[in-house]
Amino acid sequence: MFATTIYLDKPIPLHRLAEAFAAAAGASVDRVATITRSDFERSPHRWFADGQTIGLQIWEEGGDFSLAVELLSRDQIAFPDLLAGVTRTLGATALTDVFGVDPSSDSAWTMVTPDGAATTVYTNTDDEEPDLVLSPESRKIYTARRQAPVIPGN
Amino acid sequence: MNAGIPIQLRQAPEVRIALVTTRGRTPKELEANKPKQQILAPLPARHALDALTRKSRIKSVVLPSVNMVEDTDLIRRGYGAYLGNDRWRINGRVYAREGTPQGRLFPERGDGIVTLTRSELKALITLVKYNGSTELAAQELWYSDDISHQDIETARKTCDLRTKKP
Lengths: 154, 166
Known about the structure:
Chain A is α+β, with helices and mostly antiparallel strands. Helices cover about 25% and strands about 25% of the residues of chain A. Chain A has one domain (about 1-145). Chain A has helices at about 15-25, 35-40, 80-90, 135-145, and strands at about 1-10, 30-35, 55-60, 65-75, 95, 110, 120. Chain A is globular and about 45 Å long. Chain B folds into two domains: about 20-115, no CATH class; about 120-160. In chain B, the strands form two sheets. A four-stranded antiparallel sheet of chain B has the order 2-3-4-5, with helices on one face. In chain B, β3 (about 85-90) and β4 (about 95) form a beta hairpin. Chain B starts with a helix and ends in a 7-residue tail after the last helix.
């Protein structure tokens, strides 16, 4: 079981997320299980139905990356490629801590932009509220990367 | 007159005492262990076990007995052992400096620091949310495919170390 949580910089409907993850994984959308965290907490149940291999649970937070997406995959996946595909399809930027400069750090993240580029960024640690807010230096990188052209199929 | 020799004998012990600090560090060692850049203490609201919330994204929690402000002050003054790669050991704990200009430290491992995997943290947050191993917590954890019995056991032991319970 592969499990991680990624954070996206804009709100995206659950069905569009499912389509993007399915496309990036080369699977049909009916193999993706989806649920909101509030629904899960209200009525906990198994994520996966028969035949489903990817599970997505979402919830909203504050900060720059306000859509949290918990990803569970029953199959082995090439996560960096999957994430690059998802961000490209959605035109969104994601933060992940799966691969990065310091796995034990609380503020170091890998930012994956719609052009598929991965860059190390840092979130602010000076606020007691743990929302993901980029540090001033990383915000400059984010802004610059967001303006980079997206090459179709790249 | 032999005044020169007794004076040297009397001065030698005083010089030796002056070089030794309360933690066994010479001034040279203190200087070598001092951070070369600014460091800030970890925010207790982010790392303290008693302050854990649903939004916590930390990799380690700190037990109530740990004084991270005091540890940071000692590191700042050179009493920590510099381990390289922006990491220091003090009082049996290792702190690392975030890669930002602010230089906030985060507790990495050691006495009073519980390092958690993603699944263990998720289980711990669930237990804290339901104030321990309640029926509701068990139900939610049961349906979390990414959390193992071992994760729950580790989380339960850590959860029991809280001092502030509703």
